[in-house]
TrEMBL record:
Start and end residues of each GtrA/DPMS transmembrane domain: 242-359
TM helices/strands, residue ranges: 243-262, 268-286, 307-329, 335-354
InterPro entries assigned to the protein according to its UniProt record, in alphabetical order: DPM1-like (IPR039528), Glyco_trans_2-like (IPR001173), GtrA_DPMS_TM (IPR007267), Nucleotide-diphossugar_trans (IPR029044)
Bilayer topology: Multi-pass membrane protein
Region described as Disordered: spans on this chain: 369-393
Annotated Gene Ontology cellular component terms: membrane
Keyword Translocase: no
Main location: membrane
A GO biological-process term: dolichol-linked oligosaccharide biosynthetic process
Organism of provenance: Myceligenerans xiligouense
Name assigned to this protein: Dolichol-phosphate mannosyltransferase
Localization, UniProt: Membrane
A Gene Ontology molecular function term of the record: dolichyl-phosphate beta-D-mannosyltransferase activity
Start and end residues of each Glycosyltransferase 2-like domain: 4-176
Amino acid sequence: MAITVVVPTFNEGPNVAELVRRLDEALGAMPGSCVLFVDDSRDDTPSVIERVAAGQAARGGIPVRMIHREVADGGLSGAVVAGLRSVETEWAVVMDGDLQHPPELAPVLATRGRDAGLDVVVASRYIGGGDAGGLDGYWRRAVSTVSALLARSMFPLRLRNVTDPLTGFFAVRVGAIDLDTLRPRGFKILLEVLARGKRVLAVGEEPFVFGERYAGRSKATLRMGLRYLEQLASLRFGRMSRFAIIGGMGAVWNVLILWALTAFGMHYVIAAVIAAVVTMSVNFALQERFVFRDLRAEGRHGFWSRLAHSFAFNGTEAAVRLPVLWWIVEVTGMWPVLVQAVTLVVAFLLRFVFHAQVVYRPRRTQPPLGGALSSSQPGDGLLGASSADKRVQ
Ligand code: GDD
Ligand code: MN
């Protein structure tokens, strides 16, 4: 088996020689393999790559190729797609050029993919033996965890076997993906590959330890974080948008019922309790039908258990939100309306993640290590409720 290792680089000169040295060793048993740099650097990195490539050719090591782009179209993700377009082997491995991804794992990912009949094998920081240690700072780790949780909640079926949809390290059977449908921008190319295409890909995972950079600095910026939100929006937020619409309608029912009951002379506290119970029930029914329909059979909970979990969450949330609001306003002295808006948004996200990750969580179909279960399940309804419904018999 031969593979192409696609390495996007932006000003990574000091890392090139060491990366190629370790890849050369790791790919020794895979004749025909090569390393392909897709370089957008504005410094001397291209000449470093050329020098290393010449060195490899001279000593008969694995070949090193380079695509240098004058216009860094689509940034990191655009570079990966450009690289994948010119891959000639059946399998490619995408990895960073700063040695945070262990080169020794590249052949392991591709071999596992071929042997298990998968389309994509993700190197995950979040399953047994994996570690995100190299992410600098508490803040970036938290952002990474939350972003991954959101992505997995929006695409629970497509990402059912993926704990780390935002990693930059994965093997892919190039023929399995339609590069023309992708809209690469920013850093999160793997999510694009898994969530965008028409076909649901068969995905497996291997744990890995995200190491420290060998040299240089990270190119991740706040702007890339915003790009990620843009990307989620262009993926139509998966099933989150339908969940939001139902939640919004729920707020309207709630107020209408409260208004009607008090208009008939009922005490407002009793009316509020009735409004809450009715709203929760209606929302639950709509959710079952329009948001999580395809997940009901895939999940771990039966109807009554889902109902109980959903009610327990909503009840707790309603009971906790007021004291939290009061506490934040007292401690920070911020404008209560703003605090209320923020707590409502946070509560909405929590409710969505809880429903997708607990109430309707699909069972994994791929063991993280070894094994060859195939996963052919419907997608996550990128095309909206109606087409999602069609796919579910
Ligand atoms: N060609 C090209 N163009 N390469 C780029 C660009 C670009 O605009 N921006 C960054 N790169 C390259 C870097 O040179 C490096 O090889 C790789 O992409 C990853 O960039 P880093 O700057 O090292 O990113 P990071 O370590 O902060 O983030 C990594 O981990 C994240 C997970 O937390 C990346 O793998 C991300 O994709 C991943 O989401
Ligand atoms: Mn890095």
